[in-house]
Amino acid sequence: MHGYDENDALAAIRGNLPLSSLNSSNIDPTLLFCIIRGIRHHPDFANALRRETWVLQYPALLRAINARDIMNDIVPSMETDEEVPYCIWHPEIASEATYRALAERYPHMRYQVGRACAAAGYVDLWRDLALLPDISIAEEARDNQANPGSRLILEAILKEPVKWLVMNDYTRTVSADAPLPARFGLNGDTAVRSTLDIKRSLGELGGFWTFGDRGYLALSGGSPFVSSLSFNITEDWNIDAEYGACEDAGTDAEMATLLWNPLPDHLPEGNKDVLILMAAYHGDIDRYARLRRPTRPLPQETACIQRGIYHNTMFARWWAEQPNNGEFQAAINARYIMNNDPSRITVDTPAFALPSVIWYPSWACAETYREVVSLCPAMKPAAARAAIVADHQDLWDELLDSIDPSPALLAEASWREGETTGAQKAPLSL
């Protein structure tokens, strides 16, 4: 059940929510996202909220109000970094003079201004800013290249031998003081302006449990299978009043051809999610390491990674060295065991890292399974199933008296019946 009033949420989106109806000490997360959406699209609503003292409790609301001011050609007073908005070019674009004044007053916002120039085609201002050739600005310019100025910005950046990662749309951060050189060209890691017009209705999103970037992820169990919601640069999750057609994996024809062709220096425009999933599924380290989104895996991505680890030893080896790989520990350990390397298994291996399937897509020799059981007795049931599948009769005989019958063992024995002689003849009585 939602914790918000739908009528209030819709009113907030439309910018006509009576502020007197709000309990400022306990505003539902979904309603807060709707309020941000209303602020960005309705100047009068933003001005009304500016006068509410409780707004100071929510820096995201202050950022939205300041973004709305900028798009209204007003340079706001911002005293702390928490008040500085990331996206200042959607849903509307300010005048070139406003962006110039903003960059002069707040030099640390030069890259946001440069991004706005790419969206608007303000090539003269972009040149005056003397920015590093930033990948996200290039992708924004490409998205708006029908504008001659945007096209010139794109061409200027692409001509540079070294491009940089300054703006990060996944984290809404700007690393002007510590930029990283880009390892790849345009890589589909930018929430370009056209994707911000893809809206998600209240009914589709289903409500939020917490406010902030984790809100929708906590509800859905992962990032949605849509590129526009891999990002939240407007801080409102693209929420809207109306149902809209959900952007699907939706790769265009050019992106789809990369399923069977090498990746170019610059990915084409479009949604790269299907490329991410396919790279993970096959355990293609080079493609996956380039394509993956750094902060929010797709819901289907975890299953694809598990499959890739099971089927590709080098992918398992790579994942073994990655941080935050806890959910893949069991798959990694399984692949090692099937490669006759039980070194990752000890008596102290936590239960979540103990694999239950250690015989598919290949099986180890009997001695390896025997060593696994010796190192970690909790692995006996898995080793017993492996003994049946791999026809390791001697190993099965050794384990028989120390394991409990189970439907899983019966299923494996039934599968083996009619195959080669051996473990299927074990005296299972379940």
TrEMBL record:
Lineage: superkingdom: Eukaryota
Protein name, as recorded: Uncharacterized protein
Source organism: Plectosphaerella plurivora
Upper taxonomic lineage: Eukaryota, Fungi, Dikarya, Ascomycota, Pezizomycotina
